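Box 3.1 A note on notation
Throughout this textbook, protein chains are presented in two layers. The first layer is the amino acid sequence; the second is a token string describing backbone geometry. Keep the layers aligned when reading.
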Amino acid sequence: MSGGEVAGILVAVFWAILVSFLAVALARLAQTLRATTKLVADVTDQAVPLLADASAAVRSAQTQIDRVDAIASDVQEVTSNASALSTTVASTFGGPLVKVAAFGYGVRKAIAGRRDDDRPAKAPTRTVIVGRTVPAARRTKRNLRGKKD
């Protein structure tokens, strides 16, 4: 055997080992690609129903928002109607009711004044000034102190 034949055998063995490694790597790459393809198919199968459910939920939420908007506009209309009614009632009945109340108050005071005329009026005997009591005689002097004739 010559040196060229030994070199040829070494190169052939090297190529055989290299091809074996490449074949194993390609087999593993093919297996990885198959698993990836299966995973993508499974995700697609699960994602489509989820997207459909999400779309239905969004549509339902939009329907509920439309209902709430309609209710809010109705409440606003009722509020404005109640405000207008309140203003109308106040302007229609407010003046006469105040007059009737004032008349009733005057009548009560007049009747109470007639009742008080029959009885002698009682003067208070003591007055509280800054946390202490002062007899009525001193109180009248104190009130007249600042006034000059």
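Residues 106 and 112 are 10 Å apart (CA to CA). The mean pLDDT is 83.
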